[in-house]
């Protein structure tokens, strides 16, 4: 007769990867974000890591942009506007990235949109985004009861003032705005979103 102590059930250890996938995912994102935000001269593997991780970060909206910080902060205020004309002849405009006109909760909610508009949509290098965005706006406006027949995308800019003080708040600056309509689309009658 065998004793029960001599026969122990074999215990298989689970491989560590499936058990700790969340930790690996978070650590991988932290490392990719660190690489993305570092200057290339201070972090030599940046080009390699950004090449590997950049597409994933962009697809999931996790990219980083540090244009407002040193060593070379952005020197202009930027906004993007959508102008549209309805079938009944009325015209309207939506200033998409006027953050100073929003409350703090709305700013927090729309920050990723602002980054998308200012860092991607407005740029000539990103012209492949213009048509899909115009179609998105037509669908969104129709959901709100509008009937747009044309869409215009307008970029706005003005010089940022070098000093920050209560008198230099973005909503009271005196620098003149420049604007440029960078995309126009006449909505085809057969367009059905």
Write up this protein.
The structure is a single chain. This protein is of the alpha+beta class and 193 residues long. It folds into 2 domains: 16-59, no CATH class; 76-186, no CATH class. It is 35% helix and 19% strand. The protein is built from 5 helices and 4 strands. The protein has helices spanning 16-19, 21-37, 46-59, 104-121, 130-143, and strands at 76-86, 91-95, 148-159, 178-186. The protein has a 4-stranded antiparallel beta sheet with strand order 2-1-3-4, covered by helices on one side. Helix 2 (21-37) packs across helix 3. The longest helix has 18 residues, at 104-121. It is extended and about 85 Å long. The N and C termini lie far apart (77 Å).
Q: Strand arrangement, largest sheet?
A: 2-1-3-4
Query: Helix coverage percent of residues?
Result: 25-40%
- Number of domains as seen in the coordinates: 2
Task: Specify the structural class.
Answer: alpha+beta
- Helix-strand string: HHHEEHHEE
What is the mean predicted local confidence, pLDDT?
Answer: 81
Percent of residues in β-strands:
15-25%
Query: Any idea what the radius of gyration is?
Result: 25 Å
Low-confidence stretches: none
Instruction: Please report the total strand number as a whole number.
Output: 4
User: How is the main sheet built?
Assistant: 4 strands, antiparallel
Instruction: Give the N-to-C terminal Cα separation.
Output: 77 Å
Shape by Cα distribution: extended
Question: How many helical stretches?
Answer: 5
């Amino acid at each position: 007769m065998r004793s029960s102590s001599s026969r122990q059930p074999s215990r298989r250890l689970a491989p560590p990867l499936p058990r700790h996938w969340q930790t690996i995912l978070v650590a991988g994102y932290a490392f990719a974000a660190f690489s993305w935000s570092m200057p290339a001269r201070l972090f030599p593997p940046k080009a390699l890591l950004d090449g590997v991780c950049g597409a994933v970060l962009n697809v999931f909206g996790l990219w980083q942009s540090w244009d407002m910080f040193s060593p070379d902060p952005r020197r202009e205020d930027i906004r993007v506007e959508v102008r549209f004309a309805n079938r009944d002849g009325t015209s309207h405009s939506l200033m998409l990235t006027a953050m100073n006109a929003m409350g703090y909760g709305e700013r927090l909610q729309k920050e990723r949109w602002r980054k998308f508009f200012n860092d991607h949509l407005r740029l000539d290098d990103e012209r492949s985004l213009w048509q899909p965005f115009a179609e998105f706006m037509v669908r969104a406006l129709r959901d709100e009861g509008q009937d747009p027949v044309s869409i215009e995308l307008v970029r706005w800019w003005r010089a940022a003032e070098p000093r920050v003080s209560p008198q230099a708040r973005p909503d009271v600056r005196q620098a003149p705005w420049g604007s440029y309509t960078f995309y126009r689309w006449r909505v085809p009658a057969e367009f059905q979103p």
